[in-house]
């Protein structure tokens, strides 16, 4: 059986907050603060950083930056280009009426090689489709317009978090490396940046759920792209991304923990076993006619 490295891209997991609240499954056996970067905006921008984490290269080279989302219609793409220097949240709000009418917005993907090429990834911005990230952005505008209750927000974030963490459990023993992006702590970090006990509840629940992933996978890594400025730690504006990104690993993961988001890819690859995938085509033991009757094939 393949030994699997499970990689959790835990968006906005703040190194200071994870330690303050003693989140043992976010921090795992070994952990450190990791250097991140800002490029298109004055704070680290999620799609840019995650694509760099997976590819090891700068946004100039992987191509996912600033205007990282593409609309499915030409007029919207043009409008999107014209507004690309506005703040992402403003652009999100401008796009909402179109999103409500069913226009889809896809986050750009890079063609650069990534750490997950020999395995599988889900929802990783810049690498796979990232529907959960787009969804989370749209909740932010629903909240802005008073269209989301706290209990709906909880259902939304934990529904997606469960799918994301479940993916890693399902992939264990199946691929040498599996990665997932989870936006839960980013969303609730923006929402509860002035309410410590509320945000703490989410960190503790996420930590519990990561305990399940830790128990059910061979080795595990937790990474973040940035942290979150909050009123009980930071001076000045809160609810903006902090530089307190982090990295953590279980004890079987070898090598020094990466100092910067640019060092992650090489480190993950050094900890990824060779793929022993079975490349034979799968064959069917049921008669075609039976499958036709059942509507599986035509
Ligand atoms: Zn982020």
Q: Extract low-pLDDT stretches.
A: none
Cofactors and ligands present?
Answer: zinc ion
Spatial sequence of strands, sheet with the most strands: 2-10-7-1-6-5
Structural class: alpha/beta
Instruction: Characterize the main sheet.
Output: 6 strands, mixed
Annotation, overall tally of beta strands = 10
What's the gyration radius in Å?
A: 20 Å
Features:
two-stranded antiparallel sheet, six-stranded mixed beta sheet, 10 strands, globular, binds zinc ion, Alkaline Phosphatase, subunit A, 12 helices
Entry summary:
The protein is an alpha/beta fold and 298 residues long. The protein is built from twelve helices and ten strands.
